[in-house]
Amino acid sequence: MRKRNLTLSFVLLFTLSLCIMLSPFSGECSETWNIVSSDYRNAAESQKKQADITSKAEIANKAEMVEIEYKGKVISVDIADIILMADGKGGQTIGLGDPEKYISQHGNVGVAPYGEGQLYSANSSLSNSNNTSGSQNSRSNIQEITEREYEEEQLAHQWANIVEDLSLRDIDEKTLELVRKFGEAKGAVPPMAGSSGSVVITYSSYTPRIVCRPMYVTDIMLQPGELVTGVHPGDPVRWTFTPSRSGSGVTEQTHVLIKPLIADISTNLIINTDRRTYQLDLMSSPTDFIPSVSFSYPADSLKEWDMFLAERKKERQNTTELSSGYTVNPEDLYLDYEVRGRDSLRWKPIRVWDDGVKTYIHFRKGSTKKSVEAPVLIIFEHKKEVLVNYRVANDMYIVDRVFDKGALIVGTGAVQDRVVITRLGTKGMGN
Q: Is the pLDDT of residue 346 over 60?
């Protein structure tokens, strides 16, 4: 900056000399002088402002940040975070109000706890109590507390962090609200009376609360055949949980026997099995208790129906297929059948025959599956229409008897389509 001022001064003197030498042009020199002097003043004011800003920043930095030495390592800390404490020997040690702010500087060294701090380094403006008044003013900004106060302040910092970790977010509040609504059991199926005085609770309808009593046992009965894989109580000290079994084989049933040791306590219990997970709330009452609890399983009932229907469907498919060992003597085939009906009917048979025991009605490929409804077969006996048993195998009806006249019908009443099948009196291999 000093060099720049000298340069400006030299330019000013050179311009003044030039104006004196060219005195006939004094008016122009005067104008030139004004321009140069104005530029000089503006540059000087700008340099002064910049210097003031730099000086203020340096003063602010020096006032806020100091260096301290710990185990041979110097770190920069905010003066507001420094705490001075008596070391019991007439000297002082240091502590920091918020040590975690300086982890990036001290790394694994750690900030000195009470009683292990080091004095300020010699480079610090605070290292000597006999420093200038500026140092004394900075030193006056440092807290000076006792050991007990320091420990209490550190505990307060720790508790503040714990409280922050325990505070709930909006999404956590919504989650808890869903849990509360489920626990209120609105719209849940009410318990029912079971056998042997047990209470039957619908599984997964809500979280049941089981009332127990000290010196009494409450029996939790699980589904027959269900195997327990884990029992997890919330309070295993003041509650006892004992396993038991009843029955044998497929009827064997697992029991969880619950007994509280004292009254007016509560906890929860989770029972894991090979089929499901039970979640129970437990409370201990000095006067009331539920002797036994069992469960109903609506979802299992629906599954049993699904399995039953699937097995029935499989049985029907198996009975509709011809046995692979089926054989027939060609001489026993009777092919002379008449089929009368509209040719436009998709399900009109293309041929009918029998082997003396069963009658076979053969349709076009896929015709019965593409129809809105498959035709029903009836036979005529003593001038009456009689339903007859038959089964479906691919594109064929197999009737377990031989009949003289029958009909395939789709529809009811006056709105129906009918194909009449008649067995003629000629027996042989021809059509």
A: yes
CA dist 414 and 218 (Å) reads 68
Q: Left if phi > 0, otherwise alpha if psi is -120 to 50, otherwise beta: which for 204?
A: left
Report helix angle 2-21 to 26-64, nearest 10.
Answer: 170
Other CB atoms within 10 A of residue 89 CB: 7
pTM > 0.85: no
CA trace torsion 320, 323, 326, 330 (10° rounding):
30
What gap in Å lies between CA 210 and CA 191, rounded to an integer? 12
Two tokens, residue 10: 């030299």
Q: Hey, which residues does 209 pair with through a beta bridge? A: 281
Q: Which of 96, 199, 228, 79 is nearest to 139 (CA)?
A: 79
Nearest one of 383, 384, 361, 386 to 374, comparing CA atoms: 361
- Residue 73 tokens read as 């390592």
- What is the per-residue pLDDT across 166-207, written as a single tens digit (0 to 9) for each? 777 888 888 888 888 777 777 777 888 887 778 998 888 788
Q: Residue 13: phi, psi to the nearest 5?
A: -65, -40
pLDDT of residue 427: 47
**Cβ density class 297-317: b for 16+ within 10 Å, e for less:** beeeeeeeeeeeeeeeeeeee
How crowded is the C-beta side of 164, counted as CA atoms within 13 Å? 6
Write out the two tokens for 284: 């201990």
